[in-house]
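INFO  loader      accepted 1 record
INFO  loader      residues=170
INFO  predictor   begin
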Amino acid sequence: MKKEIYLAGGCFWGTEKYLQSIPGVTMTEVGYANGLTQNPTYEEVCHKNTGHAETVKVIYDEGQISLTFLLELFYDVIDPTSINRQGGDTGSQYRTGIYYVDGSDAMIIEKSIDKLQKKYKEKIAIERLGLKNYFRAEEYHQKYLDKNPNGYCHIHPDKFKQAENAKEIH
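INFO  predictor   done
INFO  writer      dumping tokens
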């Protein structure tokens, strides 16, 4: 069964490249989520305080990968305690977030966050909310690192290989 989740993990270029590499993820797209404006541009998100987070829309096959495992992989490439910052990027558009469209995912997400919190002294800063809105980013941002292999990325290239080989143990 196809499922949908929206993950904000800093700059969406690397986050998308990483997530699209995971077996069971069937589609990714980058965009802007849970902000205050309609159809924002990249420039507006960066400079006009729109409240949007750079986010990756993820469609995955629940028969191949569980949401719990997908989130564990996601946590591996973010600093879950950082507020409005990932890598060298700062600003509210770089906050971490999990935005769901299926209300039954909320409990899975919270259990996952509880487990993650046990690994940290600092409070987990990942926003967990229902998806209020999402707007597809401009075409040049889609699959950016595939088109620009030497483009900026806050995720180490080794993590992409790890994602390709990720296997959920049942």
